[in-house]
Structures are given as structure tokens and as C-alpha cells.
TrEMBL record:
A Pfam family annotated for this UniProt entry: Bac_luciferase
Residues of the signal peptide: none
Positions of the Luciferase-like domain: 19-252
SUPFAM superfamilies linked: Bacterial luciferase-like
Full protein name: LLM class F420-dependent oxidoreductase
Lineage, uppermost ranks: Bacteria, Bacillati, Actinomycetota, Actinomycetes, Kitasatosporales
């Protein structure tokens, strides 16, 4: 069976959110993309001692200087489409009040006819935590646990009861309910996060680091699931941050998913062989506007399917 393909929606500052998001979403669905995705970057620090991903001295990319709010973006896409699944890869869960986040996801799923995928992570930006987090950065894992537990409770049958650090619900009714159980996928790499994924989530949201490494991580995760007695199969959606160029890159030092359409598809073929359920292709950082984004997305989709992805 062919790997499902998804497309990242235009959230960055070069796009007109109100016009381009519905346009790209509608067009991508018509092309054949089976899902549409957003990510979260709450702010862009102008003076921070913390580098990208917490690595000292690593600058934040300009593409992070103004990223549209993820659930608002998905709502625009939901209203313009009928079939495509609508996912977050990823939403930084501890930046949100758990109950309000759970209700927002439930409302979007009900409105879209059961198409939402909740992809969560803990994030890494101290500046974002200082601005928005409900709990301190040091408690980010516990904060994510509470978000997951509150979502499961709120999305389930009434009456809803839950007693947590932030959230306290005592026999309440909460509506609307999701149209179907919303899958929760997690970004996870360290051992504690992988255990949380196996025990509490429906699947995995890796970011491409090369086909061989992704394959090794996937085997490790499946082994852990078997070790912990998990019966339900894990879902998987690989995020690919592609950098499109009209001209092919020469030489062996070409970065992963960098280059023209043929080079991007060459890397897609290698990653599809790993056997993950789906690949999310995000092209928005390297395209000038929505028209170019749609053109490149169409070319990548056509070439990928022709190559057997």
C-alpha cells in the first residue's frame, strides 16, 4: 500500500493567512494529499541567550519570525475541505490550558466531521514557556501528561471528572464531543518520552533525520511497545521539512530533502521504504508565495506517486 502523503499549510509571514490557507488546503485536497498539517511557534525572541532547539549559538530561522496560530489555521483549512485529515505536528501542549485545549480540539473535530489528529510535544523554547506556559519548563513532561489525560476525559462520555494539578473537573457535562476518538500522536525521542508514547498515545511524530536512523528509531519504538505489552498498533506520521530549489544541488554535501523536485522525491522514496504510515511534506519555508507552494506541492505529489511512494 502506498504511503499516505500530507502537506504543511502556509503559516509563515510571507503568506496571507486568510486567503492562502483555504486556497492551499482546498487545492492540496484536490491534488490527492490525504492530510493537512500545522506546527506551533508562539514567538520569535529578538534577544535570547537560548539558541534553536536549546543549542547554544544556533540561530532561530527567519521562518519562525511570525507563525500563524495552529488551531486557527486548521479551522480555516477545515472550512475549505471535505476529506483531508487535519493535524498538528506539533502543538506545544504545555503552552495551553489543558481543558480549553481539549475543548478546542473536540469542537474542531465535530465541525470537520471527525478529521482531526492531535499531535503534541513538550517544546524546547524557554522564551515561549516564559510567555505562555501554565507550568514551569522543568515540569513540561508532567504538563503534557495532564493535557493528554484531560483530553481523554473531556472527549469521553459525560459526566466528566478529573483531578489534576491544573485541571479540576467534578461531574460536569462538556460538549460538543468529537465526531470520533481523536488520535493523539507524540513527538518523542528520549526513553521517558518513548515510554509515555507507548503507554498513553496512539502514535509517533518523528522528524526526518535520515532513513536509516528513522528505521532504527521505529524498530526501537516497536520493540518497546512489545516489551510493555501494547496490543494496539502505533500510528506514525513522519515530518519532512523540505527546502525546494528550482535547480538541482550538485555534490555529495546536499542536505536531506534539499534540492529540486527530483531530489526531494529521491529522499521520499528512501523514507517511504521504512514503512511508516504517512509522510508530511512541509515546503512553506522555501516557496515565495501560495502559488509557488501549490505548484511545487503538485509536482512533488505527482513525482512521488510515479516513483511508488
Amino acid at each position: 500500500m502506498a504511503t499516505r502523503l500530507g502537506l504543511g499549510l502556509p503559516q509563515n509571514k510571507q503568506y496571507d493567512i486568510g486567503r492562502d490557507v483555504p486556497d492551499v488546503a482546498r487545492t492540496a485536497e484536490e491534488m490527492g494529499y490525504e492530510s493537512l498539517w500545522v506546527y506551533e511557534r508562539a514567538l520569535f525572541p529578538l534577544d535570547s541567550s537560548q539558541g534553536l532547539y536549546g543549542v547554544e549559538g544556533l540561530p532561530w530561522p527567519e521562518s519562525y519570525r511570525g507563525v500563524a496560530e495552529p488551531l486557527v489555521t486548521l479551522t480555516l483549512a477545515a472550512a475549505a475541505t471535505h476529506r483531508a485529515r487535519l493535524g498538528t505536528s506539533v502543538l506545544v501542549a504545555p503552552l495551553h490550558v489543558p481543558f480549553q485545549l481539549a475543548k478546542a480540539f473536540a469542537t474542531l473535530d465535530a465541525a470537520s466531521g471527525g478529521r482531526v489528529v492531535a499531535g503534541f510535544g513538550t517544546g524546547w523554547s524557554l522564551d515561549e514557556y516564559a510567555a505562555a506556559a501554565v507550568r514551569p519548563f522543568e515540569q513540561r513532561g508532567k504538563a503534557l501528561d495532564e493535557v493528554i489525560d484531560v483530553c481523554r476525559a473531556v472527549w469521553g462520555a459525560d459526566p466528566v471528572s478529573y483531578e489534576g494539578t491544573v485541571t479540576k473537573l467534578s461531574s460536569v457535562a462538556v460538549a460538543p464531543k468529537p465526531a470520533r476518538p481523536i488520535p493523539i500522536l507524540l513527538a518523542a525521542s528520549n526513553s521517558r518520552a518513548l515510554r509515555r508514547l507507548v503507554d498513553k498515545a496512539d502514535g509517533w511524530l518523528p522528524v526526518s533525520v535520515g532513513a536509516e536512523r528513522i528505521a532504527a528509531q521505529w524498530r526501537e519504538l516497536q520493540d518497546l511497545a512489545a516489551e510493555r505489552g501494547r496490543v494496539t498498533p502505533l500510528q506514525s506520521v513522519l515530518r519532512v521539512n523540505a527546502s525546494y530549489s528550482a535547480k538541482a544541488y550538485d555534490g555529495a554535501d546536499r542536505a536531506l530533502f534539499q534540492g529540486d523536485v527530483d531530489q526531494i522525491v529521491e529522499d521520499l522514496v528512501a523514507h517511504a521504504a521504512v514503512g511508516l504510515d504517512e509522510i508530511l511534506i512541509d515546503l512553506q519555508t522555501s516557496t515565495r508565495d501560495a502559488e509557488e507552494l501549490k505548484d511545487v506541492a503538485a509536482a512533488v505529489y505527482t513525482a512521488a506517486r510515479a516513483a511508488g511512494v
